[in-house]
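@channel sequence for tomorrow's demo:
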Amino acid sequence: MMSGARPESLVVNAEVGELATRALVISATERCEEVERLFAKDASLGSLIARRADGTPLLVDRVSFLNAMLGNIGYGRPLYHHRPMLELVDPAATFIVGAQCPATVAYEGLLKRPAAYRFHDIIVEYGDGDYGTLAAALLIEQVAKISAAESLRDPLTGLANRTCILDALSRELAPGSRRQPLVLLFLDLDRFKVVNDGLGHAVGDQLLTIVAKRISSCVGADDLVGRLGGDEFAVVLNIADGATWHTAAAYAERIRRVLAEPVQIAGQEVFVSASIGIASAAPGESPATLIRRGDIAMYRAKRRGGGHYFFEESDDEAASQRLDIEAWLRRALTDGTLDIYYQPIVQIPGGTLMGFEALVRGHHPTMGMLSPAQFLPVAEEIGVLPAIDRHVLAGALRAAAAWRTESVDAPFVSVNLSAASLGEDSLLTVIPQVLEQCGVAPSALTLEVTESAMLQNPKQAARLLQALQRIGVRIAIDDFGTGHSSLTQFTTFRADVLKIDRSFVSRLCSSERDQEVVALILALARVIQACTVAEGIEEAEQAALLADMGCDTGQGYLFAAPFTAEEAMEAVHNSVTSRASLESCGATRHAA
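C-alpha cells (generated this afternoon):
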C-alpha cells in the first residue's frame, strides 16, 4: 500500500489450509479513528463483520472492533476495546505488525484464552491488485476447522484416525468398486489399562506410539493402518489374491509376534499383546457393518485368551444376545432384581450345616434363568462386576442376619469378590458399613477370591484383604491350585480357607495324580492353619475319600443344590444335619 492511500473498498482473499475464507479488514497502517470513520461511512462493513459467526476483530496497533462471537469466548469490548492488539494473543507467539508482504501468507498462533481456537493473519488485497502491509485482522476459528490433512490424522500416533478409516472404507465398499470382499483387522491391546494406570499416561502414550509403528511395519504400503481410539487400532488390508483369509491370518499373526516383543520405556521393560478380530465386507455393505464385525470378532478373540478370531455370521446373533443381556443386567442392577441362591457347606463326615456360599443368578424375561457363565463375562466387559459384588454382599448379609434370629450358632455366609472389586479401596468402607447395618459379626462373613484375581494386583489385594482380616472377616482362596499358585504369597498373606476346585474332586476316585494334588493342598492348609472346603462333591465315594484325607468341609449336589433364600431359612430353622433333611429343603431341585 502506497503512503497516503485511502482505499474506498477492501477485498481480502485468505486461505486457511483448505478452508477458503473471505474477510473484511483494514491495513495495519490505518489509525483507529480512520477505521471508525470508515465504518461510519459504510455501515455495511461493520454490520457484516458483526454478524460473522467465526469472529473477526479489526485491529491496528490497538483493537478497534470486536464482534459478539469474540465476546462469547472471553474477549469482550469493555476489556479489550482500544487495548494493544498483542494483549489478545499469547505473548509467546511471534506476531508481525507492519511488515511489508509481497503476497498472501498464512500464519498461525494461539489466542491467550481458549486453546480450542487459533488465529490466522490475513493479507489485504486491494481492488487494484497491489498488496498492502500485513493486515491487522485476526480470523478466529475453531481448531476443528484445521486443514483437511490434519483432520484425518490421529494427533498422537500420526496414523489415520477413525474418520479417515471410515472414508477409506466408504470408497472401497462402494458398489462395483472391487470384486473381492474387503478385509479388516480390528486390534485391541490386552491389559493396556494396567500399563496406563500403573506407569502413568505419559508412558501409555509412548507405548501407543510404539505400537502404531510396529503395526505399520508389518503391513504393505497399500494397506491402511489407523487408530480408532483409545487402545484400538484397525488395518484395512489390500489383498489382491484369492487367499483372503489365509493372508489375513498371516498378517494378524505377524502383528501379534512383533507386538509381543518387549518395549523399553522410561527405564522399564513393558510387555504388550493384542487380540485381533478379522472380518470382511462385500461391496455395497456399509463401513459401520465391517467395523462392527471386526469389533465382535476381536471380543471373541479376547474371551478366548487372545490371538485372532474370524468373524462368522453366527456371531451376529451372539452379539445381539450379548446386547440383550447387557440391557437386562443394567436394569436388574438398577431394580435390585438379581437373584441370590445359597449352596450349603457341610462338615465331612457328618453333614452338619456350617455355612452357605452366596451365588448370583438372574432371570431374563425371554431367556429364562441365566447362569453366571452367561452374564458375568458381559458384566466384566461393561465394568459392573463391583456393583454385582455389592448387591450380593448386601443380600447375603441380610440373609445371615435373618438366620441369627433362628439360631445362635447360625451358619456363616461366603461371598465371592471379583478382581475388579479388589481394586477398589472403597471396599474397606462398604463392608464394615453393611455388616453394621445388618447387625452381623465380621466373623460370620467369608470373602472368596481367586488366585488369578489376587495376582492382577498382588500388593493391593494383600493390603485390602489383610485389613478386612484385622476386623474379623475370613478370607478364602477359591479354586485353589487352578490359577497361578505361588507359595510366596503365603509369606505376606495367609488365607483362612483353601477351597479345593471341583476339577480335582471330580477325578478324585479315578486318578492317583489328583489324589496326590488334593493331599498336597490339605497338607499346605494344615501348615498355614487354614480350613478346607472341597467343591463339587456329587458322589458319596468322593465325600468319604475326602474325609479320610482330612478335608474339613464340602459342598455339592451330593448334599444339596443351591437354595433360594426361603429354603436356606428353612434349612437353618430345621437345624439341618443330614443329607436327607437337606434334600427335604430343596436338594432335589437343580438351579440353572
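heads up for whoever presents: Residues 313-335 form the longest helix (23 residues).
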